[in-house]
Amino acid sequence: MWLKRCLNKVAMAALVIYGGARLATAQEPPVPATMQKILDRLDALENENQALLAEIKSLRAEVKAQPQEAAADTHSGDMNDRVAVAENRIAEQAQTKVGSSQRMPITLTGMILFDSSLIHGTHNPAFQQSDGDYGEGAPGGGATLRQSIIGLSFQGPHIAGGGQINGEISMDFASTVNGDDLFRIRNGEITFDWKSRSVTIGQDKTIIAPLQPTSFAHVAVPALSGAGNLWLWRPQIKYEERHQFSSSTNGVFQGALFLTDETYNNGAVAQSYIESARPALQARLSLSHDWSDRTKWSVGVGAHASESHAAGKSIASRVVSSDILFKPLPWLELSGTLLHGENFANLGGLPTGVAVNGGNIIPIKGTAGWLQIVLPVTRRLTFDAYTGRQVNVKLGLTPYQIAGTLVYAGNILYRIGPNLILGFEGGHEDVVYANRTLIFANRYDATLAFLF
Q1: Which terminus of the chain faces fewer neighbouring Cβ atoms within 10 Å, N or C?
Q2: Rounded to whole angstroms, how far apart are CA atoms 207 and 282?
Q3: 3-state secondary structure of 51
């Protein structure tokens, strides 16, 4: 607008000059006083035009210089950001990079975990062998590093369709033979990832019960094993389809071909008559929503179907499940799983899965579930409380087989440093047999975990 006004003034000056020339040629010569006035006016207009032209040039120079300065500032800011990112990446690689013969980036992960425990209660070695981690072991105390975990993760090459291959594996020393600790594979997988779908091949827990409680005292066998947490890590092939309904709402469908572990059916049927593993089909559908980066909720439903083979007969294994994670506030989180079905000890449920009744081999029906409350009081201090239970129908069970379990526990976790966590946990477990005999155990743990 300002430039337009300047051009209008220049045009007016030109018209005045042109009109004066026409008057000079069309009329009598003006008197000296009149002519002097016209000349003075023309001089004033000329000076004003010169000033306007100088100002226009100055403005053009400023306008031309501004984008260059802005670009220089932006470029300088980008360079600073890139340098900072590069320095962080170099420092991270210096700490985590592991050599690979295929020249792919591999990251060393894991945890050095020291656990000291004290147990007192009813002694039941048989239950300790079958259910392991919480069981009613001999009263006393001990300490171990065998729950420590060593893991590797890698990012592979890009593949057709804009996908990428990723993988990971984790191991510990929790397996024992003749009293010696052995290296054991926990879980691992190779994943073919695309924007909205994935195909995974590896070993992990069942997709119908993906959540589990937080505990540094129970890692070799996760917390609430046999009391609502289907924890067994088994070979499987998974397919996942993701759909984003909005920027904060997502839906996921998963399907899996899963290999069960029938050795957890060690009940009234002799183990030599049971096939050790059977294929299973599993599916899960979930929906999640993020209110913010620190508040969210998700729900899922799943189903499992397989056939156990024992003494030449097929016994159905069927489970339906539901899981929930609800975090309405940054300092409150609820999570849990509910299960109902028959013969699901082969997924990590409470033995026994099959039994003999009147000469027939039948599946044991049961219901199981667990719930956890997490209270992150500060960034360093967190309180956890969890409970789990499984109740089996007694039909087909012998009087000395387990009909149900009840576990409740709590822990305090304090983050001493960025990767050093001190924990204290106490728990109680009740075990009920088919003849209504009740045994119990109390366990107390102090843990120190160094994450890397």
Answers
A1: N
A2: 7
A3: helix
Neighbours of 150 (CB within 10 A): 17
55 shares its domain with 156: no
Check residue 273 and report its DSSP letter. Answer: G
Whether 36 maps to a domain, the answer reads yes
Note whether 268 and 396 are within 8 A (CB). Answer: yes
Cα(95)–Cα(105) distance, integer angstroms: 13
**Global pTM?**
0.74
Q: How many CB atoms lie within 10 A of CB 185?
A: 13
Q: Provide the domain count of the chain.
A: 2
Residues 243 and 362 in one domain: yes
What residues make up the domain containing 300?
Answer: 106-451
Burial (Cβ within 10 Å: 0-12, 13-18, ≥19) of residue 439: middle
Give the whole-angstrom CA distance, residue 53 versus residue 47: 10
Per-residue pLDDT of the chain (452 residues; tens, 9 = 90+): 544 454 455 455 554 444 544 444 444 444 456 666 666 776 776 777 777 777 777 777 776 666 554 444 444 455 555 555 555 555 555 544 555 556 677 899 999 999 999 988 765 544 443 444 444 445 678 899 999 999 999 988 889 989 999 999 999 988 777 666 678 999 999 999 999 999 999 999 999 999 999 999 999 999 999 999 999 999 999 999 999 999 999 999 999 999 999 886 655 565 557 788 999 999 999 999 999 999 999 999 999 999 999 878 899 999 999 999 999 999 999 999 999 999 999 999 998 888 877 778 889 999 999 999 999 999 999 999 999 999 999 888 888 888 999 999 999 999 999 899 999 999 999 999 999 988 888 999 999 999 99
Q: Alpha-carbon distance 84 to 395, whole Å? A: 66
Is 292 in the same domain as 380?
Answer: yes
DSSP string across 440-452: EEEEEEEEEEEE-
Q: Supply φ then ψ for residue 437, to 5 degrees.
A: -70, 135
Amino acid at 258: F
Find, among 88, 126, 198, 96, the residue nearest to 402 by Cα: 126
**182 and 62 in a common domain:** no
Q: What phi and psi values does residue 359 have, to the nearest 5 degrees?
A: 85, -10
Nearest-CA neighbor of 206 among 260, 276, 149, 277?
A: 260
Identify whether residues 279 and 141 lie together within a single domain: yes
On whether residue 87 sits in a domain, the answer given is: no
Same-domain check for residues 228 and 375: yes
Both structure tokens of 94: 């210096």
